[in-house]
Amino acid sequence: MPSVFMQLGLLLKENIELLRQRGVRGKQGGGGGPAGPPGQKSSPSRREPVGRRDSAPRTVLSRVSGSGLAGTVQVEGVYVMGAELRVDLPGKSSRSSRNQQQFVTSVSAGSPWLVTQLQDVLNILDLGFLELQDASQIAGATPTRHQAAHVIDRIIELLIKALRILQNADPTPPEQTVGVVTVLNPAPPHQMLVDMFVANASLRVCVTFVSALPGKPTGNVAGKGPTEVGRVFQKNGKWFEVTGRCESSAKVGSLAVVAEHLASMLELAQRTQDKLAVFGGV
Predict the structure, then answer these.
(1) Contact assessment for residue 78 and residue 24, using Cβ atoms and an 8 Å cutoff
(2) pTM as predicted
């Protein structure tokens, strides 16, 4: 059993270091950049990470839904260290050109964008590593079956939580991003909301367009998704309507590695749990 604890500990440490590229640290180690409003999956950070100077490659965005969003992103650790986004603005087409007016904005390494989902995963892995260390110190080289089962159950719980964060994500509801200042430079128009989050080992960029309504709507808009066109919402006493959206994604190699490692760790922990149940009577 100690060998299983050691193997899980080494894998956790390896992925913690991967998510701490360029000196980015989780809550257990001193804190990363500030998170955004509750429920927001990504937010600006005003602190520049320090540490290794080697950079991850830029990845080209591929369309997920809608059109009019292109660009590149660079993800290191839990941060978007660089990005260039080119967004077609709705209703701005020129009579002399078939092309729409385009808004170009960027993220720089001096003001990186913290992806709080990745920060959450890092914090979970930190917690799992610390709990393994504590269990080893308390139980020593020969933990009882009950002690081992308790630790394995806890590691499984944390790994499942981390995998769900990486795999199942939706854009942040626009009511949580209206009026929020981001690190994008130049700042987007007030009717254009930008969100960055992870799903299926990819970084997704979602742009939602909203317009202010003169008053409370009278129609029934129940059942529409958070960023579905036609949805209305209220923020600070004002009503808004979602008038357009587009979404693109970029495969990120480090996220794919972390997801694969977490799945392998979960499989190892579940096999150990089964053995304890059969031979330990737990």
Answers:
(1) yes
(2) 0.80
